[in-house]
Amino acid sequence: MAKPSKRFPLLVYRALARRWLGPALWMIPAGVLLWWVASRFNGLATRYAPLALVISGVGALIALYALLARRAGVRCFSDHFTIYTPLYPVAFAYRRIQTTRPTEFDTIFPQQKEKGARRRLYQGLWHKTALVVDLKGYPLPLWWLKLWLSPYLFSPQKTGLVLLVEEWMALSRQLDEGRSTLARR
User: Fold this and answer.
1) Contact at 8 Å (CB) between 136 and 160?
2) Which residues have CB under 8 Å from 108's CB, separation 6+?
3) 96: number of CA atoms within 13 Å, CB side?
4) What are φ and ψ of residue 167, in 5° steps?
5) What are the backbone dihedrals phi and psi of residue 133, each rounded to the nearest 5 degrees, phi first?
6) How confident is the model at residue 185 (pLDDT cuts 50, 70, 90)?
7) What pLDDT shows up at residue 166?
8) What is the rounded distance in angstroms from the CA atom of residue 90 to the CA atom of residue 153?
9) What are 70-122's pLDDT values in tens digits?
10) Side-chain half-sphere CA neighbours of 131 within 13 A
């Protein structure tokens, strides 16, 4: 197996994790508290005990997803790069890359066109620089990728990826090195 490079955290997932983790962690004790209160009253126990378990379970699932989202990132290998999302990693061969270019995130996804909740969720990201990777094609069907990956990872104009990372220049350099190494083989 090829030696991996540094992991570049995906800021879109980091923002999501930051926003969801706190409320999800509060849902777990809230569900337990509701179950405890319902169990003290005989008539309420049968009606609200399942709801309490659902609230705690949903809170636990959201918290787990938020913790996994904090680990989402991009990592370059000698012959491909992999996008690690909370639930599904996807590998892209360097030969699929046509070009890489930096672009402001707000240019790709205009903030004015977003709904209020998404605008607030990604508040600190709109004016950051994203690395756009134009691709010849996706390694899997687009509908399958859109099922597992954030919509902010796909370029709306062309076939490609929008990688919003802090160190976009280092990622761009590693992608170019991988492409040039592959071209020399």
Assistant:
1) no
2) 130, 132, 155, 156, 157, 162
3) 17
4) -100, 65
5) -110, 105
6) low
7) 93
8) 12
9) 999 999 998 899 999 999 999 999 999 999 999 999 899 888 887 877 777 78
10) 23
The answer to whether 110 touches 133, Cβ cutoff 8 Å, is no
Determine how many CB atoms are found less than 10 A away from the CB of residue 139.
13
Mean pLDDT rounded to a whole number for the chain: 88
Global pTM reads 0.83
Strand partners, 97: 135
- pLDDT of res. 143: 93
CB contact at 8 A, 150 and 69:
no
Question: How far apart are the C-alpha atoms of 42 and 66, rounded to whole Å?
Answer: 36
pLDDT at 1 over 50: no
What is the C-alpha to C-alpha distance for residues 26 and 162, in angstroms, rounded to an integer? 33
